[in-house]
Specification:
Layout lengths: L7 H8 L5 H9 L14 E2 L9 H10 L17 H16 L8 E4 L2 H12 L5 E6 L5 H7 L4 E6 L10 H10 L4 E7 L11 H13 L3 E5 L15 H4 L7 E6 H4 L8 E5 L2 H8 L9 H11 L2 H28 L4 E2 L6 E5 L9 H15 L1 E2 L13 E5 L5 H15 L2
Parallel strand pairs: 1-11, 3-4, 3-5, 5-6, 6-7
Antiparallel strand pairs: 2-8, 7-8, 9-10, 10-12
Helix pairs in contact: 4-12, 13-15, 14-15
The structure holds pyridoxal-5'-phosphate.
Length: 412
């Protein structure tokens, strides 16, 4: 392309697209997806953190809501209608935050990704650092780095300490950071580990952020997808106030299996942060129709409680079947108690413990097995060989077929 047609930043997006290779493959292979009758040899997508286990029930419930009021056809507050934010405050308070925030402390944008992109725009400047424990959710890098120009500073966690994040590790990451650090982005329950943490760990991390006068953003997008014995502990329930520098993010994408509806939520007690986010909300607003439909659903406490409970049951059942298959094929994994994924440990299958070997193993699984896992490199795993397996996007029989193919490629 001749110079000057795109701006330098437009050119950067074309030359170095934010989407990782595994996501590009996902799009290419999507038309040839596994189907029990028509395409049993089709592609098995295990790389995407989506939950379709209750898709039919959700679509049916959304259909029952009926016609929206004509008001949804017009402009409203760009961070969400007052009615929707009131209903969110009640629903989130009751179901996982542990207390009810005021609607003015809530902002709604088009998915958690938009919330994070806009929130961090207001918290950190270009070239400043945000700490992200690794392995982490691959999307954090594009969310924070692409347009906000923020630099993610990884905080490596390892299996040796059970992936626990400690103040010592955070201190070391700040000391090694080449740029000033402004915030910590802490995901709980965790992606890709599906780890549930105690109130003690949340408080320890939060106290560390306070001591260092840093913002801490608690990404709690998997709050209601906990299926193990340990209960989820929201940051909002650990202290009586979030204060000026703590913020909570959630979305309908995972716990409701509605990533396509694009509805994420920010909870913050910092009026200036909410006002700054409001200044950018017009470009990432949620459709009035979507707000109306989701608002009606969460306003029905009996329905929503039943849905959340059934989702947990189905996640637990899918996790048990999928890990049972891995056990039978002697493929090790890091056990999870929440979320819609976990890490499989393919270190013994790498040959050499290098990122090149990890990439070629990922490629072999894709080309020979037609199975797409999320490579550990995309999660910035501290060592090669761990790949994320998402088991709630495809029907469980497809996931089990994918595991058979993985085992065949690995010669197990
Ligand atoms: C931890 C975490 N945060 C944010 C997101 C982005 O979610 P959304 O689809 O609501 O933008 C994801 C999606 O996978 C996630 O796992």
């Amino acid at each position: 392309m001749p110079d000057g047609i795109l701006s330098p930043r437009g050119r950067r997006l074309v030359d170095t697209p934010p989407a990782a290779e595994y996501l590009l493959e996902r799009v290419i292979r999507a038309p040839d997806r596994w189907h029990p009758a028509s395409d049993p040899d089709g592609h098995v997508e295990l790389c995407t953190a989506e939950n379709t286990l209750l898709a039919a029930e959700l679509a049916e419930a959304l259909g029952r809501v009926g016609s929206p009021p004509t008001a949804v056809l017009g402009y409203d507050v760009m961070t969400g209608s007052a009615v929707f934010r009131e209903r969110l405050a009640a629903f989130m308070g009751r179901s996982f935050l542990g207390r009810v925030f005021r609607p003015e402390q809530i902002a709604v944008l088009a998915g958690a990704g938009s919330v994070l992109e806009v929130l961090f725009y207001t918290l950190a400047g270009p070239g400043e650092g945000v700490l992200v424990p690794t392995p982490g959710y691959p999307g954090f890098w594009p969310d924070l780095e692409t347009r906000d120009g923020i630099r993610i500073i990884p905080v490596p966690r390892t299996p040796d300490d059970d992936y626990r994040l400690t103040p010592v590790m955070l201190d070391a990451a700040v000391a090694a950071s080449p740029v000033p650090v402004r915030a910590l982005l802490y995901t709980s329950p965790d992606n890709p580990l599906g780890r549930v943490v105690t109130a003690g760990e949340v408080e320890e991390v939060w106290a560390w952020a306070d001591r260092n006068r840093l913002h801490v953003v608690f990404d709690e997008i998997y709050a209601l997808s906990v299926f193990g014995s340990e209960p989820f502990v929201s940051a909002a329930s650990v202290r009586p106030h979030l204060g000026e520098r703590a913020h909570v993010v959630w979305a309908f994408s995972k716990d409701f299996g509605a990533s396509g509806l694009r509805c994420g939520v920010l909870v913050s007690e910092n009026e200036e942060v909410v006002a700054a986010v409001d200044g950018l909300a017009y470009w990432a607003a949620v459709s009035g129709d979507t707000q109306y439909r989701l608002g009606e659903l969460i306003g029905d406490a009996a329905w929503v409680d039943g849905y959340v409970a059934e989702n947990r049951r189905r996640l637990a059942a899918a996790y048990a079947e999928v890990t049972g298959a891995l056990d039978r094929h002697r493929i090790p994994y890091v056990p999870a108690a929440a979320g819609i994924f976990f890490l499989v440990d393919l270190r013994d299958d790498l040959g050499e413990p290098t990122w090149e070997s990890e990439r070629s193993l990922w490629r072999r699984l894709l080309d020979e097995g037609d199975v797409n896992l999320t490579p550990g490199a995309a999660c910035r795993a501290p060592e090669p060989g761990f790949m994320r397996l998402c088991y709630a996007k495809e029907p469980t029989p497809a996931v089990l077929r994918g595991i058979e193919r993985i085992a065949a490629v690995l010669g197990r």
